């Protein structure tokens, strides 16, 4: 057991499994009923297979329910999956990454309480208490990271500094002057901060910082080791997604060995992404989540496309909530760049807008100074090629703007000779991810 | 009055230039003159060859992207001020020269300016009035 005091909300982390499952079944039945009654898509899909809410008698019956995909949110944009009238919705958020049609999610007053609570439990698992001063460098706005962490830190009773992302100099000043003991942000932004702090006269020497809570993008244990060594902190991984609630779905504890899923609010399954069959604990597959208490948008068997496995063993921290392994890859081709979800198809659509022919391209991801860099290599075709340098430079700029317009991130466009992008069996490898640990040892 | 120029897209990497040159050598095509425009990332190799259709086809067969454009071959005296006088003729007209490169002829005491000009027909007209010799393809190939 960790030595830090436990926030009252965190008592739910230690329920005995029987009790937890009783709560889960009770909530599952209620959420399926609510979704069936109020979300036309759920009703039509359940009716199509002759499934009624009363057929859900055990937790294992979850496997009978139809899946929900990200595309369902897009197809019913903006409010199609809402199960409550707008007068009950007190907050909207939208997913990052797409400027065309983002994914819109809503929260009722009770949803906000649950969200604050699971984030308070997240911070508590990282050993934080009301005595901590938390610098929240997740972006504030439509992105769930900033406000999700903010409300959680407040619910914990800690002092929260809502500094949001960016402005590295001010981040460092606040960290030095306000006696900051913990920070939350994306791991890549913290790497950037590390380098900037090391470049100051005093470095980490006079800082009180001792905990980092990092999420919104995948990062490795090797990166954690470097962060902890260079910043002299404990670094914790958290997991969440906009479609489910935002941050606060799962978190690491003092053991830093897998992430505890807040199972009293989120029912997890691991399914084989090819056969859709539920896999037993310990086997690797796609994480599928059902929200158990969400009112505004109950999410039934949401396909996260994140690949992991359930760790069956009880955690040494004492929590009874089961853990999942750290997410290392996905079952689809989604990239997470600076915390933004990007699909290669979005880059492709941007290229198609600039040039009529389908260009051959490759996305190369790198990390420079702790920040993700995107290079899009585009093979020059006869239609694109002009004899003048200025015309080609203009083309590069046009492509770069088109990409930025679609994904919201700046990409460096490099024109390359035809047939130079490696093809395997006629198909080009679209993404080369060279982001390693990001910081030199 | 205009010459065909081939432009080849090259990445700015060591060894990139040798490949198109090798391809042309193997096809027995002599490069009469060339110019290389480059940026940090890429370059454009501009070539004047006698049999441009054949050159284009062998280059494309090896995967090069080739663009054909019209340029002027302007004969100028190979002495100080030779080029300046041509520019002086064109400047008042506002004709825009996109780029040019020059080389000296093997025979005689003249040089040739290869110029890509936006309004080429207008430039030809102006230069003719000033008695400047613009080489047509057949003359150009015999002189080089």
Characterize the structure shown.
The complex is a heterodimer of chains A (441) and B (144). With 441 residues, chain A is an alpha/beta fold. Chain A contains ten helices and 23 strands. In chain A, the strands form six sheets. A nine-stranded mixed β-sheet of chain A has the order 4-3-5-6-7-8-9-14-13, sandwiched between helices. Chain A is globular. Chain B has two domains: 3-69, VC0802-like (2-Layer Sandwich), CATH 3.30.2130.10; 70-143, VC0802-like (2-Layer Sandwich), CATH 3.30.2130.10. Chain B is 31% helix and 37% strand. Chain B has a six-stranded antiparallel β-sheet, sandwiched between helices. In chain B, a hairpin with a 5-residue loop joins strand 5 and strand 6 (110-117). Chain B starts with a strand and ends with a helix. The chains are: A alpha/beta (441), B alpha+beta (144). At the A-B interface, helix 10 and strand 20 of A face strand 1, strand 3 and strand 4 of B.
Q: Supply the CATH architecture of the largest domain in chain A.
A: 3-Layer(aba) Sandwich
Radius of gyration of chain B: 16 Å
Shape of chain A: globular
Q: Give the ordered list of helices and strands of chain B.
A: EHEEHEHEEHH
Please work out how many helical segments of chain B DSSP would assign.
5
CATH class of the largest domain in chain B: Alpha Beta
CATH architecture of the largest domain in chain B: 2-Layer Sandwich
Report how far the terminal alpha carbons of chain A are from each other: 32 Å
């Amino acid at each position: 057991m960790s030595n830090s005091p436990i926030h009252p909300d965190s008592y739910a982390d230690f329920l005995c499994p029987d009790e937890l499952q009783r709560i889960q079944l009770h909530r599952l039945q209620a959420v399926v009923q609510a979704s069936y009654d109020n979300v036309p898509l759920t009703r039509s899909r359940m009716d199509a297979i002759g499934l009624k809410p009363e057929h859900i008698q055990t937790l294992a019956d979850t496997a009978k329910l139809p899946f929900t995909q990200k595309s369902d949110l897009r197809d019913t944009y903006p409010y199609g999956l809402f199960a409550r009238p707008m007068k009950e919705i007190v907050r909207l958020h939208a997913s990052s990454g797409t400027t065309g049609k983002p994914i819109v999610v809503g929260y009722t007053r009770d949803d906000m309480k649950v969200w604050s609570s699971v984030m308070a439990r997240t911070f508590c698992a990282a050993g934080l208490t009301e005595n901590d001063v938390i610098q929240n460098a997740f972006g504030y706005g439509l992105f769930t990271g900033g406000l999700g962490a903010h409300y959680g830190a407040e619910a914990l009773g800690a002092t929260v500094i809502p500094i949001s992302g960016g402005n590295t100099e001010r981040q460092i000043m606040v960290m030095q002057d306000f006696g900051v003991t913990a920070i939350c942000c994306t791991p890549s932004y913290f790497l950037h901060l590390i380098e900037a702090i090391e470049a100051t006269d005093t470095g980490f020497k006079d800082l009180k910082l001792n905990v980092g809570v990092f999420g919104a993008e995948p990062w490795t244990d090797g990166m954690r080791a470097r962060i902890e060594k260079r910043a002299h902190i404990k670094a914790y991984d958290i997991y969440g997604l906009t479609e489910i609630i935002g941050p606060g779905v799962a978190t690491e504890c003092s053991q830093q060995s897998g992430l505890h899923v807040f199972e009293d609010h989120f029912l997890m399954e691991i399914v084989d992404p090819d056969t859709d069959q539920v896999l037993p604990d310990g086997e690797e597959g796609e994480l599928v989540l059902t929200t158990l208490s969400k009112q505004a948008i109950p999410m039934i068997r949401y396909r996260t496309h994140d690949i992991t496995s359930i760790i069956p063993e009880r955690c040494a921290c004492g929590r009874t909530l089961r853990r999942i392994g750290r997410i290392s890859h996905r079952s689809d081709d989604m990239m997470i760049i600076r915390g933004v979800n990007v699909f290669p198809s979005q880059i492709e659509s941007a290229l198609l807008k600039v040039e009529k022919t389908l260009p051959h391209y490759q996305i190369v991801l790198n990390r420079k100074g702790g920040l993700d860099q995107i290079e899009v290599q585009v093979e020059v075709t006869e239609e694109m090629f002009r004899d003048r340098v200025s015309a080609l430079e203009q083309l590069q700029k046009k492509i770069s703007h088109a990409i930025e317009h679609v994904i919201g991130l700046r990409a460096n466009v490099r024109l390359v000779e035809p047939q130079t992008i490696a093809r395997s069996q006629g198909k080009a490898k679209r993404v080369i991810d060279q982001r390693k640990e990001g910081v030199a040892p | 009055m205009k010459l065909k120029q081939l432009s080849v897209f090259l990445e700015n990497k060591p060894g990139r230039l040798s490949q198109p040159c090798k391809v042309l050598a193997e096809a027995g095509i002599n490069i009469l003159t060339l110019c290389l425009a480059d940026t940090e990332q890429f370059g454009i190799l501009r070539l004047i060859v006698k049999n441009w259709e054949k050159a284009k086809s062998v280059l494309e067969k090896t995967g090069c992207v080739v663009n054909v454009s019209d340029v002027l071959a302007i004969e100028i005296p190979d002495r100080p001020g030779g080029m300046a006088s041509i520019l002086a003729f064109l400047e008042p007209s506002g004709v825009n020269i996109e780029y040019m490169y020059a080389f000296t002829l093997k025979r005689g005491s003249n040089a040739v300016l290869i110029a890509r000009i936006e309004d080429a027909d207008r430039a030809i007209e102006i230069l003719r009035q000033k008695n400047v010799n613009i080489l047509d393809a057949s003359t150009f190939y015999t002189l080089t």
